[in-house]
Amino acid sequence: MWNAFWQYIFIFLLLMVIAMPLGAYMYGAFFRKGAIDRFFSPVERVIYKLSGLRSQEEMSWKSYGAALLVVNVILLGLSYGLLRVQHVLPLNGGKAENMEPTLTFNTVISFMTNTNLQHYSGESGLSILSQMAVITMMMFTSAATGLAVAIALIRALSQKGKTIGNFYQDFVRANVRVLLPLSIVVTILLVAFGVPQTFSARMTVSTLEGGVQTLALGPVASLEAIKHLGTNGGGFFGANSSHPFENPHPLTNVIEMLSMWCIPAALPFTYGYAVKKRKQGWVLFATMFVLFILMLGVVYKAEQAGNPLFGKWGLTTDGGNMEGKEVRFGIPLSSLFTAITTSATTGSVNNMHDSLTPIGGLVPLALMMLNNVFGGDGVGFVNILMYAMIAVFLSGLMVGRTPEFLGRKIEPKEMKLIVVALLVHPLIILAPSAFALMTHMGTEAISNPGFHGISQVVYEFTSSAANNGSGFEGLKDNTPFWNISTGMVMLLGRYLSIIAMLAVAGSLVKKQPVPETAGTFRTDTATFGVILFATVFIIGALTFFPVLILGPVAEYLTIR
Amino acid sequence: MRAIRFALLMIVLFGLGYPAAMTGLAQLIFPHQANGSIIYENGKPVASELIGQPFQRDGYFHGRPSSIQYDASASGSPNYGPSNKELAERMKKDAEQWLNKVPGKEKNEIPIDLITNSGSGLDPHISPAAALFQVPMVAKATGLSEQRLTRLVKEHIEGRALGVFGEPRVNVVRLNMAVQKLVEERSQRNES
């Protein structure tokens, strides 16, 4: 108990030590002309020159969104091609076959949308070249896409005009100024603790008992670094970050957790600098942090208490629920990883979520349903701002005043777009889950019968919709039905809300800011934090309680 | 057209350049780790210090249950949910086996990590309690004394990182290499 407490306290402190300066750094990297600009500009000019992008003019929200979609679609197409012919390409020491069409469809969407749902196993399903040129590359570009959207929205809230920035510029800066330098540092740290980084795919050892053991290897550390920094989450190996080569040591576990948490946690501070309301950045951060702590408490307590059935079978209940967990992490670091990976919608796992206790498994599910407790790189912060505007709107309705956010009136046009983005999420979770549970195509995949099977199906679609990518991995999901359905859900979950929020940005940037008066509803106070918390909680609860009762809660009641 | 050039450049920079540069750097600074932390004995690779091995004989300490039998060209667990009947069957069966291998113990004395599948199926570690639990079995099969083996286990306990992070643990492969060494030393003494 106390050990877990201290581990958590130290990690929270480390997060603050990293996130606050990183927030300031990202403000400098995206919004100011200064030392950061001078340092990176030469590299970026080469990129612009080689791709023939002569000038970086400001764009309207429509051209910004169009550029975003064009780049994403081209990367999808190129990656699809690479995976379909990987067998004949170089660097295929593991002899991976060409990927099957529906699985390729699922995989390229999964990585381009920053989801990283994996219906294949990296050891056998991908060549080393595919791990690099498709997977690692998309881990950069999808995270940069998300960051660009957040920067565009913040820009819209901090300036007045018709444009929200240049997509290529934001995208390149996100890659070159933020993701790449951090990835290089994290890669070297991970290798130092034992994460492999080599081009050879296999190594054979003769074991102590005289057998033969084949080890899968590869450029793991470079993927692992951006996998977390980019809140991607797709493992090099099937077992993801529970694999000793992906996450060999308690300290690599700490590095990976901080890597996936630092950019989402830093963005509220970047925002605070950009809109010149640092207090409001703090309010957003603190609200998310409180939600996070509550969820972490639940999963830790449930896992530490263990599976009640163990006791009924006459086995020990000391040591908690270690099924699907690694000894080096134990209950505390496994629970924390689970909470962070589903908050920051990364989706890497250091323990098997399918084997969590019912209430322990409810937590990652609920965090992905909320989809805004920090959230993934960029898009998570966009979701937080979306909820903040809803909270402002609701408060405005209650006191009968025109709702304003940072001096910009929130009017029906913005609210309609926001409501679309808000409602898409439950729709693309609940509708396909219901469909899957009604058909053989869906139910045949269930590996854990009973109420847990409902959780498996709902988890798969929730993870796809939230662009998380973790799974209740017992689900036998490499079938055309699951590949195509979750592929569609990932696309809708990613791009509909991105387009809607870019449209909101395009609309807000044109508004004449109204001066703040004594009557202005303040959004940088603890009161607003409480309202925001309640908004998130009530909307989430109203939408998802019924399905949570059918899955995890029902399972809990049957094994209690 | 410019977007296509831009996309191709992204593949070259982040899909090829970055991993290649990192591989070069890693091979230069940390060659042992970068190639899988392989332990060599008489020039032959016998293990990775990070990957568990399937120990079946009573003369060795055993690792955790693994549905893939520590096949490190794959990874993963059976993903049993807490209410799955197959989980119950497997745990009860493993518990019976442990009671046969280590007589005189009660069912609820078996450390939990010895009857639960790890997440990776390749977990190289067990808890100190799980190692100490197996001392009678290894002592009987090797003829080494229980005191000597207990001391050996205690020497092999890795503490929490920086005194705070992670859990105390024993690397089963390293422990068994030490057991093997003791057995060999003793047989050499007996011969001479």
UniProtKB/TrEMBL annotation, chain A:
UniProt keyword annotations, A-Z: Cell membrane, Ion transport, Membrane, Potassium, Potassium transport, Transmembrane, Transmembrane helix, Transport
Superkingdom of origin organism: Bacteria
InterPro entries listed in its UniProt record: KdpA
Methyltransferase keyword on record: no
Protein's membrane topology: Multi-pass membrane protein
Pfam families, per database record: KdpA
Location of the protein in the cell: Cell membrane
Subunit structure: The system is composed of three essential subunits: KdpA, KdpB and KdpC.
Similarity remark: Belongs to the KdpA family.
Function according to Swiss-Prot or TrEMBL: Part of the high-affinity ATP-driven potassium transport (or Kdp) system, which catalyzes the hydrolysis of ATP coupled with the electrogenic transport of potassium into the cytoplasm. This subunit binds the extracellular potassium ions and delivers the ions to the membrane domain of KdpB through an intramembrane tunnel.
Protein's name in the database: Potassium-transporting ATPase potassium-binding subunit
Taxonomic path: Bacteria, Bacillati, Bacillota, Bacilli, Bacillales
TrEMBL record, chain B:
Pfam families, per database record: KdpC
Highest taxon, organism lineage: Bacteria
Bilayer topology term: Single-pass membrane protein
Keywords from the UniProt entry: ATP-binding, Cell membrane, Ion transport, Membrane, Nucleotide-binding, Potassium, Potassium transport, Transmembrane, Transmembrane helix, Transport
Protein localization: Cell membrane
Signal peptide region: none
Transcription regulation keyword on record: no
Family under the similarity heading: Belongs to the KdpC family.
Subunit: The system is composed of three essential subunits: KdpA, KdpB and KdpC.
HAMAP family assigned to the protein according to its UniProt record, in alphabetical order: KdpC (MF_00276)
NCBIfam families: kdpC, PRK00315.1
Function noted in UniProt: Part of the high-affinity ATP-driven potassium transport (or Kdp) system, which catalyzes the hydrolysis of ATP coupled with the electrogenic transport of potassium into the cytoplasm. This subunit acts as a catalytic chaperone that increases the ATP-binding affinity of the ATP-hydrolyzing subunit KdpB by the formation of a transient KdpB/KdpC/ATP ternary complex.
Name of this protein: Potassium-transporting ATPase KdpC subunit
Organism: Geobacillus icigianus
